[in-house]
Structures are given as C-alpha cells and as structure tokens.
Amino acid sequence: MTRLFAVFLAGLASLALVALAVLGPALPAHADTVRDGEYWLSEFGISKAWNVSKGAGTTVAVIDSGINGHIPDLQGAISGGTDVSGSGQADGQTPIGAEPEHGTLVASVLAGRGHNADGSPVAAGSVGSDGVVGVAPEAQLLTVSTWLGSANPSGRTDMQQIPDAVRWAVDHGAKVINMSLGSSSPDWPPSWDAAFLYAEQKDVVIVAAAGNRGAGNIQVGAPATIPGVLTVAGLDRQEHASVDASSQGVSIGVSAPAEQLVGDMPDGTYAQWAGSSGAAPIVAGVAALIRSKWPQMSADQVINRIISTAKDAGAPGHDPIYGYGILNAEAALTANVPETNVNPLGSIADWIRVHRPDAAAPPSAPTSPSQPPSTEPPLAEATPPAPVASAGTSPWPAVVVLGFGGLILVILVGGTWHVFAVRRREAEKR
User: Fold this and answer.
1) What confidence score (pLDDT) does residue 9 get?
2) Could you tell me the CATH number of the domain that includes residue 38?
3) Does a structural domain hold residue 278?
4) Is the pTM of this model over 0.85?
5) Catalytic one among 65, 242, 277, 292?
6) pLDDT at 192
7) What pLDDT is attached to residue 211?
8) Is 277 labeled as catalytic in the residue annotation?
9) Residues 275, 402: one domain?
10) Same domain membership, residue 176 and residue 220
11) How many CB atoms are closer than 10 A to CB 394?
C-alpha cells in the first residue's frame, strides 16, 4: 500500500497557542514595540554579527506561499520570483494557499529592512528604525510561490511543485534556500531526488523547518530529513526546546527561536506567531551573512560553521531535540572553525547511491517544469490554520478514525514527556 504523503507550511504551532495576533501599524521609533519584540537579534548574537556582515550580495530563495514585496518593510528586498503552483502570479508575489500570510512572515524575519519613522520605505542598503528588520537585511530574496496545505486549484501536486521550486531557485542564483515547510512522512518521493542533488552539486545551502508538535508533527518530516539539509528545531523564550513549536529527529542540525515571534503580514500590519517556520529563516539569515562575508566558502563549510559554533544543549553532543545545539550567530561569523570538505549533515548523492540503485535515469538529469499529471494517489490535505472539519466529513469508518487518533495521542504524549524530561535533566544540572 502506498504511504500517504502531503506537504504543508510549518508555520502555526497550534491554533490555541498562536492564533495570529495583528499588532497594527508600526509605532514611532521611541515606542516601536515591533522592533522591541525581536529579542533574537540581541540574545542570539545577530546584532553583533552585523559588525561583520549584513548579507549584502547574497541571494536567498524563499519557497513558500508567496511574498508581498510591496509592503514597507520588504520594499527593495525582492530581486525575482516565480510561481510553481500554476495557481499564483508569475512573479511569486501574490500570497496563495492555505496559509497565504506565511511567506511574508518568513521573509520579514529573514530579510526585512524595516521602514522610516514616517512609514516610508528605506533607501537601498539602509535599515529603517521602525518595523521588522530581518537577520540578513541587506540580502536579496527570490520568492517561489507554492500552493500547499489545501487542494491546489491547478491540480499541480506537492511532488511536482517542490522539485520545480528548488531547481528554479538554484538556476536563478540562490546561494541559500529557505523551506519553512514540512511533510507528513520522513520519506520523500523519488521525484525530489534530482532537484536536491542538483542543489547539492551547485553548492547551495538548504535550510528547512523541523515541524511543530502543536500541529501534529511529532517527528521531523521531509524535506527536513533529506541528507545535507540544515534542519532547524524550535526554542521557547527561555531557550528550551519548544513543546509545541518544534519536533524531534536525528536529522536536526541546530535550534533557534520559534515562539513569541513578530513578523509582517501581507497587508502591511504585524503579527505575533510561533513555529519552527520562524526558526528556519533566522538560521537561513545567518547562512546568508556567512556567504556574504566569505563568498567563496562552500555550502558544506557554511553549515559546519553554524552547527560547530552552536551552544550545546540537552544531551551532550548531537541529540534529536536540539541537534548540535542553540544558534550563536556571533560565533558563526567570528570563530575560528576548522575547514571541512564534507557536509557534516550528510549527502543526498551518497543516499541516492545506496537507496535508489535501480533508478532508471541519473538522479542529476534535469526535470521538465511541465511534468505530466502525476500517477501517484491523491495527496492528503494538510491541516490549514482553521477549525478542524467535522468528523462527519471523514470518508473513513469511525473506528479507524478513532483508533488512529488514539495512536497520535499516545505519540504526542510520549513526545511531550520526552521534552519535559530533557528540560528536567537540564534543570538538575544547574
């Protein structure tokens, strides 16, 4: 039996915890609660890392629901875009899908420029005193809009959109790709192999969100399980593993803030949100800072700098809750880090050789963006940020639904207990 597979944006940790709270227009500089809310800039070494780099000259692709680059905090940040869903606009700047606000929130955390006190956009190369400033405010963004989390009107599936998005981003100059999205399975379809191998061969850093327990993702799912991808877990305000806004798995590389985040909405207002979707662009921003400072540095070495300078947390060394530890942006930009010739998180090329030995064509062969309709079974729709549908609409017999729900509940309780156990051990050490 073919395993159900669905890709969805990893933004909302849970409806009860992070119902989007619009904060309204930005306040004057002396009382800008939006900028004051970006605690990660100072507490995770980002503002100090800006003494070395602000991301100038680096292009980062955001594969998401589309970015509205016309709002004040993002004007001038978008250098190109496309739509791979067949349902959006050609420039990728029209928010689409089940969570249309998601891409703009992610982009603002990654490369927002803020705005002037009078509400006007800042000049090129400048950072405004008000509004959201991203981790890499001088980086350029590519927006690749996808339709995820609900039925795509055009019929293009996740299996078609994701590889097309990755390949387009690589071909248009992205040195870092942010994927704040996840799937219902740790496995990924063979249709993804060539695109991720292509990115690896072209020396591109791919950063992905680990997923959120609050949205039902107990374990990390693809693309965050793909070898070589830098997977980011979420932290709460006290730098502990987030119970709701994170997940767990052996592929996690580093941890970053995922709760009490602030970001831009497509209509120019602000929102408070949570999820590993917000942790991923913080790390992708740091990767952009590194690639700006050292343009010739390999993707393997960029990833190595980020994880080897992280502050160890949880069990000593690498663990499935924090990865190699908590992000330290200042150290990632200033520390002496031994050179490496391999990605410490693995290689998709090696994985393909072992696990897809009978592939009909070389994995690196280009794929056509206009693929024929998929012969795979229809994908299960992911849960959008809206009330859960009535059980009466389910096509499954009630006993199957209840049994599966019970299994998920057991896994959720077990995963949450494990996180609390880790926290308790940390407290005992102190």
Assistant:
1) 79
2) 3.40.50.200
3) yes
4) no
5) 277
6) 96
7) 93
8) yes
9) no
10) yes
11) 11
**Looking at residue 125, what is its pLDDT?**
78
pLDDT of residue 392: 35
Note down the domain range covering 294.
7-355
Q: Which of 14, 73, 85, 102 is catalytic?
A: 102
Considering the domain boundaries, does residue 35 fall inside one?
yes
The whole-number pLDDT of residue 308 equals 98
In a domain, 369, yes or no: no
Mean pLDDT by 10 residues, the chain (430 residues): 58 38 39 86 98 98 98 96 98 96 98 91 84 97 96 95 98 98 92 97 98 88 97 97 94 98 96 96 98 98 98 96 98 96 96 84 46 35 32 35 39 49 55
Residue 385's pLDDT is what? 35
Out of 64, 130, 158, 164, the active site residue is 64
Task: Give me the pLDDT at residue 314, please.
Answer: 93
Predicted local distance difference test score (pLDDT) of residue 358: 79
Residues in CB range of 148: below 8 A, 6 or more apart: 7, 8, 9, 65, 97, 98, 158, 161, 181, 382
Do 215 and 257 meet the contact criterion of CB atoms below 8 Å apart?
no
- Contacting residues for 259 by C-beta, under 8 A, at least 6 apart: 13, 234, 235, 236, 237, 242, 245, 274
Residue 25's pLDDT is 42
Whether 358 is catalytic is no
* Three-state secondary structure readout of the chain: CCCCCCEEECCCCCHHHHCCEECCCCCCHHHCHHHHCCCHHHHCCHHHHCCCCCCCCCEEEEEECCCCCCCHHHCCCEEEEEECCCCCCCCCCCCCCCCCCHHHHHHHHHHCEEECCCCCECCCCCCCCEEEECCCCCCEEEEEECCCCCCCCCCCCHHHHHHHHHHHHHHCCCCEEEECEEECCCCCCHHHHHHHHHHHHCCCEEEEECCCHHHCCCECCCCCCCCCCEEEEEECCCCCECCCCCCECCCEEEEEECCCEEEECCCCCEEEECCHHHHHHHHHHHHHHHHHHCCCCCHHHHHHHHHHCCECCCCCCCECCCECCECCHHHHHHCCCCCCCCCCCCCHHHHHHHHCCCCCCCCCCCCCCCCCCCCCCCCCCCCCCCCCCCHHHCCCCHHHHHHHHHHHHHHHHHHHHHHHHHHHHHHHHC
If asked whether residues 221 and 308 sit together in one domain, one would say yes
* Amino acid 140: pLDDT: 98
Assess whether 225 and 132 both reside in one domain.
yes
Q: Is 102 a catalytic residue?
A: yes
